[in-house]
Design a protein that fits this description.
alpha/beta; Quinone Oxidoreductase, Chain A, domain 1; Rossmann fold; 2 domains; 7-stranded mixed β-sheet; 6-stranded parallel β-sheet; 8 helices; 15 strands; globular; GroES-like_sf; Lipid_raft_assoc_Zn_ADH; oxidoreductase activity; Alcohol dehydrogenase
């Protein structure tokens, strides 16, 4: 089987994947002789991968590195070619999409094993590329708002919500999902000139730059996708009983750090947390309903072959990809 994987060690023999020693993009290699995976557990499906995506910081996920090599790629869209005999909700030939768990990749390959919790049926009108571009980003947004943020459909009392990094890969779904649920959404971006038209087109009620925070009224819920100083500034515009969530990958310890540095003084009642998205059929089914209603679709910046994954990863890691995901077709 043809697949991409990451060398286990650096040229001097130091293992990759240990804390503070991720593999460089030069360690990504494409091989033609990787063993084809097989289903072995009651909830498993074998899929022919039709498309996957590049995740900007994937090489920094230490949990992906087994003793010999790391397999990258978590988003997927593909065709079921085998299933465990106990699986009855899927058939061979079904078209599915979703995201594998963060502790195992493997979607940069011709075939991969996924679980029934990780896959849902793909809407027919989505291309393979559009379908693969959705799961990780859209599920992060869905879980931030409706699982960890406790958001519900607004009826008589819409909430005020601030989204930072609103024009990015996760931010655009945060904006769309919160607006679709009936809440008032303020989209924060580094440049109104560059991003306001996009953010207005997907439903944002207001668009601000990060330098405008001092003019804002406090919010019931803030979801941060930027981290660093922008996340620190969010404490100044969250209600004393509000919820502050960060999904920025570098912000995992922000709650303790900010409490120690007194940034959050006077905001002891704020519910603050960081989380990492997990596969969820329930989340993916909600996303599919949005897709079928025409409210969202996967955004693709470009499509490349498996031979070009190294350059594609470097492009994504430098944030030089424009709007949408880089999609890999094995």
């Amino acid at each position: 089987m043809r697949a991409a994987r990451v060398r286990a060690t650096s040229p001097d023999g130091t293992p990759y994947g240990v804390p503070h020693h991720p593999a460089p993009s030069s360690a990504i290699e494409v091989h033609d002789d990787i063993p084809k995976p097989q289903v072995s557990q009651p909830d498993e499906l074998l899929i022919q991968v039709k498309a996957s995506t590049v995740i900007r910081d994937n090489l920094e996920w230490n949990e992906l590195y087994p003793p010999n090599h790391a397999l990258l790629g978590n988003d997927f869209a593909g065709i079921i070619v085998d299933r465990h005999q106990s699986v009855d909700e899927y058939n061979v030939g079904d078209h599915v999409y979703g995201m594998s768990h963060g502790n195992r990749g493997g979607m940069w390959a011709e075939y991969a094993v996924v679980t029934t919790e990780e896959a849902v049926h793909k809407p027919d009108h989505l291309s393979w590329e559009e379908a693969a571009a959705l799961p990780l980003s859209a599920m992060t947004a869905d879980q931030a708002l409706f699982v960890h943020g406790g958001l519900e459909l607004a009826r008589s009392h819409p909430k005020s919500i601030l989204i930072t990094g609103a024009s990015g890969g996760v931010g655009v779904y945060l904006v769309q999902f919160a607006v679709a649920a009936g809440h008032h959404v303020v989209a924060a971006t580094s440049s109104r000139q560059r991003n306001e038209a996009l953010l207005r087109s997907i439903g944002a009620h207001e668009v601000v730059e990060y330098t405008d925070f001092s003019t804002l009224h406090p919010f019931d819920l803030i979801v941060d996708v930027v981290g660093s100083q922008v996340l620190r500034d969010c404490w100044g515009v969250i209600k004393p009983d509000g919820t502050l969530i960060s999904v920025d990958s570098t912000s995992w310890g922000f709650v303790d750090e900010h409490r120690r540095s007194d940034i959050s003084v006077g905001k002891e009642g704020v519910r603050a947390l960081f989380f990492i998205v997990e596969p969820s059929r329930q989340s993916m089914e909600r996303i599919s309903r949005h897709v079928l209603s025409g409210k969202i679709k996967g955004l693709v910046s470009k499509t490349v072959s498996l031979d070009d994954v190294r350059a594609a990863y470097e492009s994504a890691h430098s944030r030089g990809i424009g709007q949408g995901k880089i999609v890999i077709t094995p």
